[in-house]
């Protein structure tokens, strides 16, 4: 009797342990810890993060005054080639008051930003920007978030004396969302539009809370949103590379862009990080005090459920790198529309049926 109770107890304990291990290994917590370790195994390359510290003293703004001060007028016509170069660090930048905006409208944002040219383009009037920056935003059914993004980001980018254009890339069909592939389409479309040297890949719901977080490229690919309110302004895991990243054109080509095979939420940014490590690049991160960013909270969108297949894909990133990405990108542009505040690219990227083929 006693021994059968013992046996039953043992069987229960073993089952519990096995079950626990199984679910733990499937959980994002375990996978994220594992992702941090992956680089050490893979090619024995240690990811190196370089911190970028701002040189300038922060300037304090009252409420939203910074949005409406047109201190750095941008240009609405052709630029004089003899202008001096803009300074490395634009003057008068500092922490910003960012909230979710409910009471605005596109006409209001347009009237508050008179120097934005069609397609959401702008550049400084009194100096020549050192970089030409394309901002790529993957999109589907997030009008309210886009409005908040435009409301803050046009004044933000103008204050930073940026020569920039905004590209909103919308997945047309009702199939599972593919953020990474939309980023690749944005890159390809913007590149045909203008001689961009720097590409910033941004979610529509992340707004930087400090003007010193320069939306431009640095020596290495740059992880801008490394201090998000949703994660208490800390990194949830060391190798996180999500939200907003900036790539020099030659670096984005070197990593062959994003993978095209990530359908659904999660992992495509971790995979991009593996590509960066695999080609021997480092990652820059602005200091966490200036990288503070606001994420507009929302429920997970329908059609963008967690991608259950991302973990094995991330582990094999270095194997697929040259076959899967910009070099294998196929899509059909439905329309390219020049709105007053952004260029809207509507695209048919398929439905992932061929994903297993692409992944090989
Ligand atoms: C991670 C996601 C990232 C996302 C961050 C922050 C995955 C892959 C399996 C571990 N990674 O869990 O894509 O940016 O959370 O939300 O899902």
TrEMBL record:
One of its GO terms (molecular function) is cytoskeletal protein binding. It comes from the Eukaryota. Residues 222-299 form the Galactosyltransferase C-terminal domain. Keywords: Glycoprotein, Glycosyltransferase, Golgi apparatus, Manganese, Membrane, Metal-binding, Signal-anchor, Transferase, Transmembrane, Transmembrane helix. Pfam families: Glyco_transf_7C (PF02709), Glyco_transf_7N (PF13733). Pathway: Protein modification; protein glycosylation. SUPFAM superfamilies: Nucleotide-diphospho-sugar transferases (SSF53448). Residues 86-218 form the Galactosyltransferase N-terminal domain. Its EC number is 2.4.1.-. It is found in: Golgi apparatus membrane. Its cofactor is Mn(2+). Responsible for the synthesis of complex-type N-linked oligosaccharides in many glycoproteins as well as the carbohydrate moieties of glycolipids. This is Beta-1,4-galactosyltransferase. The gene is LOC108712940.
């Amino acid at each position: 009797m006693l021994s059968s109770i013992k046996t039953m107890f043992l069987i229960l304990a073993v089952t519990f342990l096995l079950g626990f291990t199984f679910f733990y290994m499937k959980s994002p917590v375990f996978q994220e810890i594992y992702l941090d370790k992956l680089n050490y195994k893979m090619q024995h390359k240690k990811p190196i993060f370089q911190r970028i510290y701002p040189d300038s003293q922060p300037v304090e703004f009252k409420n939203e005054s910074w949005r409406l001060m047109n201190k750095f007028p941008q240009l609405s016509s052709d630029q004089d080639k003899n202008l001096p170069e803009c300074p490395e660090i634009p003057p008068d930048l500092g922490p910003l008051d960012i909230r979710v905006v409910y009471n605005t409208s596109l006409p209001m944002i347009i009237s508050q930003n008179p120097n934005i040219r069609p397609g959401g383009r702008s550049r400084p009037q009194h100096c020549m920007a050192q970089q030409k920056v394309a901002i790529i935003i993957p999109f589907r059914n997030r009008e309210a978030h886009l409005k908040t993004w435009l409301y803050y980001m046009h004044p933000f980018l103008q204050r930073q004396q940026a020569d920039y254009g905004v590209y909103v890339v919308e997945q047309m069909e009702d199939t599972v969302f593919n953020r990474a592939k939309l980023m690749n389409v944005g890159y390809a479309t913007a590149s045909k539009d203008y001689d961009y040297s720097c590409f910033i890949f941004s979610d529509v719901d992340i707004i930087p809370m400090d003007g010193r977080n320069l939306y431009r490229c640095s020596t290495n690919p740059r992880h801008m949103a490394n201090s998000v309110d949703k994660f208490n302004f800390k990194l949830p895991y060391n190798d996180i590379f999500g939200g907003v990243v900036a790539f020099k054109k030659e670096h984005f080509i070197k990593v062959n862009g994003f993978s095209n095979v990530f359908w659904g939420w999660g992992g495509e940014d971790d995979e991009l990080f593996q590509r960066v490590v695999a080609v021997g690049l480092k990652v820059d991160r602005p200091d966490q005090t200036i990288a503070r960013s606001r994420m507009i909270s929302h429920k997970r969108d329908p059609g963008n459920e967690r991608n259950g297949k991302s973990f094995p894909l991330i582990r094999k990133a270095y194997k697929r790198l040259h076959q899967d990405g910009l070099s294998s990108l196929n899509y059909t542009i439905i329309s390219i529309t020049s709105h007053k505040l952004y260029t809207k690219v509507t695209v048919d990227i398929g439905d992932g049926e061929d994903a297993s083929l692409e992944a090989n």
